[in-house]
UniProtKB/TrEMBL annotation:
EamA domain boundaries: 11-152, 161-291
Keyword Cell membrane in annotation: yes
Superkingdom to which the source organism belongs: Bacteria
SUPFAM superfamilies with a match to the protein in the record: Multidrug resistance efflux transporter EmrE
Gene: rarD
A matching Pfam family: EamA
Full protein name: EamA family transporter RarD
Membrane topology of this protein: Multi-pass membrane protein
PANTHER family found in the cross-reference section: ACYL-MALONYL CONDENSING ENZYME-RELATED, SOLUTE CARRIER FAMILY 35 MEMBER G2-RELATED
UniProt keywords, alphabetically: Cell membrane, Membrane, Transmembrane, Transmembrane helix, Transport
């Protein structure tokens, strides 16, 4: 596969790996904000992400002109705006569910959701894009489904944290695929949509005197402001990395994030893992290996056909 930017693929691996490593360790970041309600963290994350993203866009004149141009474009093409709006809602839901999971002892289940995300994408691809699933991917999906079923039996209820994270990620990816916007500009719009509501919510908390920001806990205020940077930075790295690498390579690297989250939950937060959970994870990991193998074969065949 030719490299569209002419860069060494190593730079793509560094960019993409850095993004997924940071996403994995964000589990610890949200744990530090365990004294702050999840929706307040979400509101700060949206606001400060918008500030940080717009600061970068303003520094790059080409990006700023594109941001203004596309903003006018949305008034004429409402379907494109609808997908941006859906993406904004999906990523906000994903953020708040993950933050809640971290601060309620559900990191293991959250990591399961991140492992399941590519498999949910298969379903979206087949149902919405009419993609050909193939035998290998079909097998990987049903093995993962068995793992989720066992967890459901174990819990006595549907593992909604894992499924919600996977579904919100799948919806976000689908909406992004439908817009095909520049990553930085798209993030500007996504955070812009949520910012007015987030600002009103934070102002309400300040008026009531229940806000965590600006209190005597200076570290909390700094961490809330930093939420924008740790949100935007890995997305920018990911956007740079994915331009330089085949999607099959990105697909393998993405499992860094749930693996880090799983180990943090297991080793640092000492979350219990039962035999059924271990067996379910083994099924999920097996399905991932089958998925990666089948995807690599499919990419190789496609490359040979294009040559």
């Amino acid at each position: 596969m030719t490299n569209p930017k002419g860069d060494n693929p190593l730079s793509g691996i560094l960019y993409t790996s850095s993004a997924y490593v940071l996403w994995g360790f964000l589990t610890l970041y949200w744990k530090l904000l365990g004294n702050v309600p999840p929706f307040e963290i979400l509101a700060h994350r949206i606001c400060w992400s918008f500030v940080f993203t717009m600061a970068i866009i303003l520094l790059k004149k080409q990006k700023f002109h594109l941001f203004i141009y596309r903003l006018n474009y949305f008034f004429h093409y409402k379907k494109e705006f609808l997908f941006i709006f859906i993406a904004s809602l999906a990523i906000s839901a994903n953020w708040v569910i993950f933050i809640w999971a971290v601060n309620h002892g559900k990191v293991i289940e959250a990591s399961l959701g991140m492992y399941m995300t590519p498999l949910i994408s298969i379903v979206f691809g087949v149902v919405l894009w009419k993609d050909k699933c193939g035998l290998g991917r079909s097998i990987s999906f049903f093995i993962a489904l068995l793992g989720v079923f066992l967890l459901t039996v174990k819990y006595g209820q549907i593992p909604w944290v894992a499924l919600s994270l996977a579904l919100s990620s799948g919806i976000y990816s689908y909406a992004k695929k439908c817009t095909r916007l520049d990553a930085l500009v798209a993030m500007g719009y996504e955070t812009l949509i949520g910012t007015p509501t987030a600002v009103v919510y934070l102002m309400t908390l300040q008026i009531k005197g229940t806000a965590s920001f600006g209190t005597n806990l200076i570290n909390t205020s700094i961490l809330l402001m930093g939420a924008g940077i740790v949100t935007a930075l890995p997305l920018i790295w990911f956007a740079e990395g994915v331009k330089r690498l085949p999607l099959s390579t990105v697909g393998v690297i993405q499992y860094i994030t749930p693996s880090i989250a799983f180990l943090i939950g297991l080793l640092l937060f000492k979350e219990p893992v039962s035999f059924v959970q271990w067996f379910s994870f083994i099924l999920i990991w097996a399905s991932i290996m089958i998925y990666i193998f089948s995807s690599s074969n499919a990419d190789s065949k496609e490359t040979r056909l294009l040559q």
